[in-house]
Write a structure and sequence with these properties.
single chain, alpha+beta, two-stranded antiparallel sheet, 5 helices, 2 strands, about 55% helix, about 15% strand
Amino acid sequence: MKTNVRIYIFKNKQWKGGIEMDENQQITYMQARLIRLASEEWNLSIKTVAAIFEENNVFRFIRECFDIFHVEGDYAVLDNIVEYLNNKGAELNVRIS
């Protein structure tokens, strides 16, 4: 069953509003978070990480595994992505800190 998720936004403990995302929006949001996290962890530009993800079908991998990934933390998902890339033979010498 597909459900929408409501994200609540607070600033200085004051309610500022919220947004509701359907599953496709949640997946896109996760992909964006993971690009940024990989960029920081791997010390690569966002553009470079996005190219690595695109060349190795990581975006599709995230979409296909979203049902599992959405209950894991971003670091755990990034670790799965590194394993996925290694299994595909991608030349990526990185480690999650």
